Amino acid sequence: MKNSKITFIGGGNMASSLIGGLLETGVTAITVVDSNPKPLAAKFPIQCYTNYAEALVDTDVVVLAVKPHIMPEVAKSISATLSEPLPLFISIAAGIRLIDLSRWLGVDLALVRAMPNTPAIVQSGASALFAGKYVNEAQKQLAENILRAVGLTIWLEDEEQMDAVTALSGSGPAYFFLIMEAIENAGINLGLSKDVARLLTLQTAFGAAKMALESQDDAATLRARVTSKGGTTEQAINTLQAGNLESLFDQALKAAQQRAVNLAIQFGED
Q1: Which pairing describes strands 151-155 and 125-131: parallel, antiparallel, or unpaired?
Q2: Among 10, 48, 137, 168, which is disulfide-ready with 37 (CB 3.0 to 4.6 Å)?
Q3: Per-residue pLDDT tens for 72-95?
Q4: Is 269 domain-assigned?
């Protein structure tokens, strides 16, 4: 990967996160095409352009990091500048199906669809990837290495699973922020200062996640292990379960998944 030329189309937060992660791994041949590339050029030692033709010369990988609603226009513009050998394309635009992206690009290409999430900004992301039929093993490994620069990566066998991934990990950070917000406010209501409630909430969330990551046990087992019979934790858990917390999350993720399906259909209608 260190010898590959990687071109980003779009220079937003996710692109910036990936660029930072890649530079830390030793990748240096990075270019960006953006309407306002000055902030990225000031932040990173990379080449920046405002047009596709010059940036795409001899590139090995094109990372499509633009907003979904402008992807049709961007893909069609890129198509006019492509030449042999054709690069690997990685789309990190939410809701854009490979069948639509291929249609807009107008040629059979090696396409990988990726769904990273916002913790990639702090190199702690979770990314799911799906490879199109023209992606070879070397390109698949290359795509994985690029996304791994900002966190964990997994491959999906069915592109339709991407809607479930969007609901779970794509939107997931917001769920945990909501839970942290609720716990922090509950602590304040119990008499703790805002600063104390915040720090205890954040460290507890971090510690619980670290324990889960480093354990071979599932979440249910870990929960049971720290829930003493007749104790304070059991009382809190019983209250949460009585409020149908699991059912609420089930409904929430199904709603997010359906919205992802609807948006994919909408974005595909160009």
Answers
A1: parallel
A2: 48
A3: 999 999 988 888 889 999 999 989
A4: no
